[in-house]
Design brief:
Length: about 350
Amino acid sequence: MPVPDQRDPDVTLRSLTGWLDGRLPGARVPLLETPTTSGFSSETLLFDVAWTGPGGSPETREPCVARVAPVKYQIFPEPRFEEQYRLMRILDEHTDIPVPPIRWYEPSTEPLGAPFFVMGRIEGRVPTDMPPYHMDGWVTEVPPEERAAMWWSTLDILARLHRLDPDALDLGFLDQPQWGAPGLEQRLAYYEHYLHWAYDGPQETALQALSWLKANRPDEPDPPRLLWGDARIGNVIFQDGVPQAVLDWENAVLGAPEEDLAWFMFLDRHHSEGVEAPRLPGFPSYGATVERYEDLLGRPMRNLEYYEVLSGFKFAVIMARIGQAMIDFEWIEPDSEFPYDNNCSRLLAKIIGGDRP
């Protein structure tokens, strides 16, 4: 969901050009697009950078994206912005996970008002959340075969991610020991904290889900793996059904692959059943998805019903925070039911009541 942004394009152009000159002497910015709105999680600046190498070589021009840490409003209690950059650089340089090429990181707030990192811009299309891609947008217009290709290819990337060795990649910085041991202990403690921070109002469905999750927490017998944290086709840039880049790693954590897989399916269910829209032809069933994933990972998926409730709970907490933001921006009344009665919370209540896909 976008939030108002009043960034001055001329000031931004001068600041960005000066900053780039320290990395590419003589660099210029022939194109800069500053948003009139930005996301809660971060702000996105689109620009081209042009520079001439030594010896009078021809000018090089590269389309880039700057992701700027949130300053207008925080959707998460503590943005893990530098961790996102570190992870994306590791994935870019040491794995076959398709992320945009990572260029630079700036920890200071001086150039753009907040820390930021720069990456190469990847061409393609991303399935929309607003409106959900099952309801409207370009995904409704492509043939069913392309939708199936989008689904299966993203699932393949997810399996490749879960087969990575976090220790070999030195991903210990993703651990959050202040919330407990990696996996479910951390996740439940963090999201319980997040829930009370997000919105000071009724949370009957979320609290009911949390109580159930605490009482029914299963074992996670395998070593923690790297989790995307926001695994869904809406975070992938596609060209003709083929993923070109995987985006949005700010929620990456260590845990069980089931958590990512359940989120992958729950977000799709939310974008169809949750908004009272039929799933588009071509998207594989959730049962077939689980079977394919078990083949890809080489083991059975455990306790997916639990992780589905966890997914709904996490998304309900995020929606509560979005509802609070809408109140703060005076888009809805302070006594609005939206923070605790929305498409996600209603779907979560349905799942808690025993309705499995």
